[in-house]
Amino acid sequence: MYQAMSTLGFAAQSGQYQYNGPIKLEGAKPGSSVVILGAGLAGMVAAYELRRAGYQVQILEYQDRAGGRCYTLRGGDSVEEIDASVQKVQFARGNYLNPGPWRVPYHHVALLDYYKKLGVEIEPFNMFNHNAYLHADGELGGKPVRAHEVYSDVRGHVAELLAKSVRQNALDDAVSGEDAQKLLASLKDWGFLDKQYRYAKNMQTSMARGYAVEPGGGLMPVARPSQPIGLKDLVGTNLWSMLGVFNMHEFATTMFEPKGGMDMLAQAFARELKDVIRLRSQVVRIEQGADGVTISYKDRGDPDNVLKARADWCVCTIPASVLSQLEEIQVGKPMLDAIQSLPYGSSVKIGLEFNRRFWEEDERIYGGISYTSLPIEQISYPSTGYLSSGPAVLLGSYTYENTNSYRFTAMSPEERVRLAVEWGSRIHPQYKKEFRSGVALAWHRMPWIHGCYGLWNDALRAAHYDDLAAIDGRIVLAGEHVSYIPAWQEGAILSSLDAITRLHAKASA
Amino acid sequence: MYQAMSTLGFAAQSGQYQYNGPIKLEGAKPGSSVVILGAGLAGMVAAYELRRAGYQVQILEYQDRAGGRCYTLRGGDSVEEIDASVQKVQFARGNYLNPGPWRVPYHHVALLDYYKKLGVEIEPFNMFNHNAYLHADGELGGKPVRAHEVYSDVRGHVAELLAKSVRQNALDDAVSGEDAQKLLASLKDWGFLDKQYRYAKNMQTSMARGYAVEPGGGLMPVARPSQPIGLKDLVGTNLWSMLGVFNMHEFATTMFEPKGGMDMLAQAFARELKDVIRLRSQVVRIEQGADGVTISYKDRGDPDNVLKARADWCVCTIPASVLSQLEEIQVGKPMLDAIQSLPYGSSVKIGLEFNRRFWEEDERIYGGISYTSLPIEQISYPSTGYLSSGPAVLLGSYTYENTNSYRFTAMSPEERVRLAVEWGSRIHPQYKKEFRSGVALAWHRMPWIHGCYGLWNDALRAAHYDDLAAIDGRIVLAGEHVSYIPAWQEGAILSSLDAITRLHAKASA
């Protein structure tokens, strides 16, 4: 069907998903067992589905909570870094930061199905807010501008320039005659151009980019058009590239978040699996033989004592960053090489609590993200509790895979928070007066993961990905790092579903 | 500040609002009174604020409920048309249709403030959904395509064409040299162009328009790029102009809706004003003299008996469509001419209830709007209850000011619903199997308003608007029809706030 349609030149159907509804595993051999390492989403999905298929399952989890990076920080929580420094979260009741995943695209269909299956309520995550700011140091006088202005002006100027070109017959080899006339009409409409095909200051362009003075009622002053940003002021700016995020499938509407915090799904899985998760269990050795797998681990409260867990099969969701540091993992060289070759992405998130929602009350920003060239890069406003009074938490910085994230990683948590407030106050002057407390999580400094996500590139994928994903004897790996959607929960879940499907096939053979 | 900045050529600040926080009226002359006609939002805002300022207020309302067009239809409600035909709404508990206003832009700041003040909870209204459909009969084979495909492909083709033109130096008089190079870089980024500045089928454009096969986990099939729609297939189509709605300030994110139905604010006001609203009161005559205003009205349960209400002042929010039909209204010729000159917009909304959310479950459409060239024009999916099971209501058609809305107005309610299902099934084949019931509200056939909203144009504004809005003796008009934001609740509220501010100034003089 897809092939036939695309030969007509127009079909272009997108959106065939790898997940087509709940996995159907059944008929495990009686008494067969699986040990699962790690109680993040990949591990818990594996345990949940394998148990339903008839396996005896157990999960060993290093931390004293299930969920892994499906994680929410609330008032009273503690965050310990590799140097044993501890931050105590001081947010008011009901406020939180999702330091790991924080948004769910509509096309992450497996994750959405688990929300539904486990009764986790969701609400829209507002990714795309026309009224948030774009800001670049040294551009447009360094002043934040509203996204809807740049968003409209870029489109308008491009439309005007292209219309000019078409009218000068400069593109006759590409588009001419009747098509050129149609294109002009479309550009006029799409770019809010006037009769002379100009993107100018008038009420028409203000219908797209907003008015200088909004229309009112009765005998209030009449509305006034706003002045578009000039093409010369826009060309080559960072503002233009900041629009890219508005155009990416990865961030397309509708996005969601669980109500109350990202870890609601982890909590729901943990309730289901309460009797099979063993917390505070540090795996030190993974051995396998003809008749099963043996996991050596220590209870973190009793580190001198090595315990053993045995099973027929093993689903290992321990991140490669940690797995590569175990005393031993008995897998072949290809998988070992893959584990040892995968670097982990750096990422830092900083949550800031303020006395009130000044971004809503003073600036009419309801959710969404402001982008800046400052090292904090982003300010994301809460997509929940709109119009409410009292303290609220925003994401004061989110950096990844660049010098900013490494810079923040190298600082003390206090310094990260201090600078997020300092830099953020250049976007929102209210910051300093309204600031209450903050928490900064640098993923490379988390003792249980030493990084944020598997940082693949094309060369690494070609060399190692299939070896990482293949079953080695009785062991299969799963997690976002064993997926083509790294850093996203959907990747972890799809990886897990694929891994257990293959493992079940092998176990049933 | 605005002037100074715009001379620098970049400031372009938009968003100065006419409403700057709660109105502060105080010090009414002791014992002075206001009669308010109509308990819609304009009337109730007037009563609420004037009472706080010290006036004795009373409201006469024709219907047996307060709220006017701030209206929600739920199971058990009845809708009566001018020919006395009655529809009984059969929706399941919790489901509803907002037949009047249904969405609240972030820049409708007065309305949002009243939500906050009266404790009405809001949730995001999803206007902009990349995964909803665009559909035009006779274009792209008449097949619905996902909005994100058209949205990306239009941008990509435009960027490619403009890049081509720039590289051929066809635009040297407009942009050249270093700026031309910067523009090329920006176009490449913004349009997802390849190194040859082409918008082609590859993984890069799929990052914007979506993949043919989405990426997966483990050893699932690798992702595959989708095929962009060709420029020739897009140029001149209705699909292009359907994108306009994605680009309008009027519909910019973040939009909201009250949780539970649009009338939640009307209900909240009605609770506040319970003791001053008289329902079922049909105004027949409005008289004024040197010492006050006299309203003649009838209780609809006792139409032979004319009652009188007297007050010092009158705020009349009766729509011009009805006001022009009263036995008498004692105002000067300018206001009378204005009242009699204003036509009312035609609009029809059709709500359809289905057994399940097939648009979510089968098609991954979570809220937002599909646009079609069929007479139903739009299908809007609920922005609430995402992922829930059981019956749900969508807006199966919304038409206004055109032949489609008149066509639907002329049909029986049953026929409107039947055709909405028939036409809608061309977008969603599941319609026929899953349909439960529908309700269709044609505003021109509502006995209490005879139209949907004041249909101004520039000539009418010039001739009559100021006369309509000016205080005539002791009478001032208010409502969306006395605003520059017709058809929106913000217009009604701003109109009311402006009217009572002027009336209070006159009464205090």
TrEMBL record, chains A, B:
<comment type="pathway">
    <text>Plant hormone metabolism; auxin biosynthesis.</text>
</comment>
<dbReference type="Pfam" id="PF01593">
    <property type="entry name" value="Amino_oxidase"/>
</dbReference>
<protein>
    <recommendedName>
        <fullName>Tryptophan 2-monooxygenase</fullName>
        <ecNumber>1.13.12.3</ecNumber>
    </recommendedName>
</protein>
<dbReference type="InterPro" id="IPR050281">
    <property type="entry name" value="Flavin_monoamine_oxidase"/>
</dbReference>
<dbReference type="GO" id="GO:0050361">
    <property type="term" value="F:tryptophan 2-monooxygenase activity"/>
</dbReference>
<comment type="similarity">
    <text>Belongs to the tryptophan 2-monooxygenase family.</text>
</comment>
<keyword id="KW-0073">Auxin biosynthesis</keyword>
<dbReference type="InterPro" id="IPR002937">
    <property type="entry name" value="Amino_oxidase"/>
</dbReference>
<dbReference type="GO" id="GO:0009851">
    <property type="term" value="P:auxin biosynthetic process"/>
</dbReference>
<dbReference type="InterPro" id="IPR036188">
    <property type="entry name" value="FAD/NAD-bd_sf"/>
</dbReference>
<feature type="domain" description="Amine oxidase">
    <location>
        <begin position="41"/>
        <end position="499"/>
    </location>
</feature>
